[in-house]
Amino acid sequence: MQAVSTHAALVASATGQVVIERVPTKRPQAGEILVAPLRVGICGSDLDLLRGTRPLGTRILGHEGVAEVVAVGRGTSPFTIGQRVTFLPNNPNNPADVLGVSTEGLYQQCLVVPPAALGRGMVVPFAPGVPLVCGPLAEPFATVIYGQRLLEQVCTPNSIAIIGAGPIGLLNALYAREQGCAHIFLVDTSRARLDWAVKRGIVAGAEAVLNSPQLAQSVLAQTAGQGVDAAYLCTSRSATHAVLKQALRLVREEGAINLTAGSDSPEELPELPGVDVDGIRRANVCGLGREVRACVTREGKKLWLTGHSGASVGYLQEAMRALRDDPATYARVISHLVSYRAAPRMFAHLLAADPQRRGGAPGVKVISDFINETEEVEEVAMLEPQQGPAKDA
Description:
This protein is of the alpha/beta class. The chain folds into two domains: 6-138 and 312-379, Alpha-Beta Complex (Quinone Oxidoreductase, Chain A, domain 1), CATH 3.90.180; 141-307, 3-Layer(aba) Sandwich (Rossmann fold). The chain is built from eleven helices and 19 strands. Strand 6 (90-91) and strand 7 form a beta hairpin. Helix 3 (138-152) packs across helix 9 (313-325) and helix 6 runs parallel beside helix 7 (240-250).
């Protein structure tokens, strides 16, 4: 790569919008590496940060992605120029230190990674054979595997409810099916998202359920009054308390609930007296915690509650193996591939109070392409199943 003084970045403006700016390009010093992001996924947490519902510590977001090492600072480095890498954004020793939240993230053409981040394992070799378009799925998929492994400690779910049909919810559905779960209820407030998930073959039509005040009654009616074995709550932080109340009703006695997101509210949930909901999630960070807590609802129902954030290198490698071996299945969650030049328009679309379809599909999992210099917004067709190791795409 030619040395340049500035590079393009997607920058969060003071109004919460995303704009393209030229920012200084740093050269790696001793112990540092310079990476060039190739594909970066837009995460729901990025949208929360832009909306101001979470504290923003950097103007350049982005933590899900694949990059290429383009320069290495003086000294010994485990990375080589031309090597592809991916990222574990959370710091297990400091919850406030998160790539693309407290420090500059991947929504830019170049990023210097400091020695401390390299030392804690933030940068991980990208597995050969994983299609490039699937690369930004590796980190969120790793968190999905972590969450399901937590619940496996207390139950082997044959029936589950997934509340939230965003990328995490859809990955949970696909992975649960792969693990042998027979009955899945995918719940969302958007009929367009549910219809898209059915069209992509992620769930069957009968499994796609529009959320309503009658959700618990509907699930109970379809499970002979028993409820589901487990529920995965995959909505935004602002919805956590509301969907947790629903899950308490539709999960069976001794069933389990997993919290993917934290809660905006510090208040105790009346339906779960004495339970620190967000504290349960904070106990399991970066694949290290294994806590699943026994709880009793106000009505006396016994159940298990857990939550988590981040993943470990082991879960990340497991996710990349699955993406390498069966990319066609998991790439179904990708709706759009957007050039970085068109990304500000896509962010504005996703941040709209009532976003409509972008083209023929709702914006579900959007991947930003930092190689493409055009203004393209492309709907991603389903990948064809293939034999043998996947090739880059």
